[in-house]
Protein: Single-strand DNA deaminase toxin A-like C-terminal domain-containing protein
Organism: Aspergillus pseudotamarii
Amino acid sequence: MESYLCCFPMNERGQVAYEIDKRRGRYTNICASDDSDTENDDVDHLANELAQKATIAAQRGESYADINEDSKEMVTINPGHGIEPFEQKRILDAISDCANGNKRAVKDYLETSSEAQLFIRGRDHDSKTTLISAASEPSSEMVSLLLKYGADVNAVDNGGRSALMEAALFGWAENVKVLLQNGADKHIRDSENRLAVDFARDYYKNRTERYRRTRGSVTSPLNPRLGYTEDTFRRDIDRQEIVRLLSGENRKSEIVFGTPPTLSLSESYSFTPSPMQGSLLLRGPIEEYPISSSSKTVARLERGGKFPSIGAMSGWSHSSVQSLRVDGRQWTDDVLYISEVVDHVLASHSCDQGKDGQYNACHAEKQLIAYFIDRHVFLPRDLELNSKLEERIDSVEDELHEFLSGTEIGHKEKLIGKHDEIKALNLELKSVETALNQLVASPQARPLLKLESQLNILNQQLDRHTGLMDMASAPPPVSLTEAVILVSSPPYQDCRVFKDKVNARFGLSIQLFAAL
């Protein structure tokens, strides 16, 4: 059996630079970029992804003319220089002219050839149309010409890739503009659930694909890009414009504006001599925290190094925002659980709203202590099977079985799904798969997709919890144990007692300070 050596970001002084990501069952290096955007636990998102894949598969099952196999028009080529004349398909020259941006030659072909519509509507072995391939080239005039002669602006290939996606990937802003002017749908998703705008973003996956396709072997006669060298500087500028064209207001909403301190605010800043000789300290405001009422307490967790500062506000009805990263509901519930673990009794209060101890659990200091524990300490429940999750999986499985047994679409899927009986009949199997994909892509199947997506998510969560149990059973030799929590008012005595019990139970050194 192979063995692996795990190198955690820690040094000989016991300092660490990692967190525990319990939701995904892994450790996270805080100094490395996090690519977690590829994971999504949203049921609607996954249902849409399944439906999109089924739609692409259904389209793939449709009958399209093969631009190579179905072409019959021949021309005689006389190269001269003693070489015998030979015949070849006329459409091959048109494909080459299209790739090279020779608009006049392609226009002449379209006006004179009996196979003009095959050239416009036909597909290659990857199901690419000439428009999809032309969109990855620098000629917007060629794109306009193909659209003028009836090219389907929203056609997709076997991977769900449209012309708009190809233009975005290679950074041809003018092609994108022409396609949008002719009705290109920027909301189409490919088989990996990516939008056209995603191909224009500076992602490693996009850079890798461009490198592979421009320096690798040519596999498609509709996409001859061997020898192409990208002007990365200009193309990146165009890709930034493409992002603006395709994302619209959604892109603007991510922009955060600010202004420098006014004269009155500048008075909040001051330089003071540092305890270290030969330097000055600049003191001033660090963060502004929104509060729902003047009675609210705000606290800030500081862990040093490159660990981000985390803000919290007392209460349980608010969700996380930019400066207050802690969700009141989630972490109040965690405080209730941790109180049981450390044998801390949360006193009842008239504001508990039906959950005993809730009011005293929702203090900002306690929420941040729970946050720290979640990121740096394994709790008893991390070593135990999640019975509630298993019960939820059983419940969804029962609901899915009931849906398949009691609805028309369920009966159809059961009939269509008998692949074992028709494996030897390839044509019939293809027909059945096409029917199944069309069925799954229909609006009537959305409840089924949501149930399947929910079951998929729950099983993923169960797998992650199993991984978390393995992590908790063999923790790293060193973890972060020290932190400071700054509080906007004197900490409650109950919070101090809770903090002391947590420190004693888990071997931590969390300190509370009133920053007044």
